[in-house]
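Researcher: We plan to redesign the surface later, but first we want a full-length starting point. Tokens attached.
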């Protein structure tokens, strides 16, 4: 299954150069990198990224991480994927530029589940 990280493009491009993503400020604060499933992504975008531009959607196969990936309760008790440790840039399957409106609604192709 694929999981998704939303990231400012400039931050992700720096991670690509370094070969490693340590996390966005909120990830560093919480001690893990926040991901969403395809089903959770719409609400994540609306809650946390509405009105932002220059964002990328980072797609990763969840089997890449082994025991470093924990499924933990968050919004309404839903289990969200949290990566403890950094993300090797070579593990990324695909990046997609996000186009969001002011309400956080997105224009994306259908995501694989």
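Model: Full-length starting sequence:
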């Amino acid at each position: 299954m694929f999981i998704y990280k939303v990231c400012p493009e400039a931050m992700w491009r720096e991670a690509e150069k370094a070969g490693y993503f340590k996390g966005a400020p909120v990830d560093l604060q919480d001690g893990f990198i926040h991901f969403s499933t395809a089903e959770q992504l719409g609400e994540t975008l609306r809650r946390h990224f509405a009105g932002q531009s220059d964002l990328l959607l980072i797609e990763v196969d969840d089997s890449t991480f082994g025991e470093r990936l924990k499924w933990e309760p968050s919004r309404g008790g839903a289990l969200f994927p949290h990566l403890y440790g950094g993300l090797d840039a070579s593990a990324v399957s695909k990046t997609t530029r996000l186009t969001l409106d002011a309400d956080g609604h997105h224009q994306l192709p259908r995501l694989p589940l």
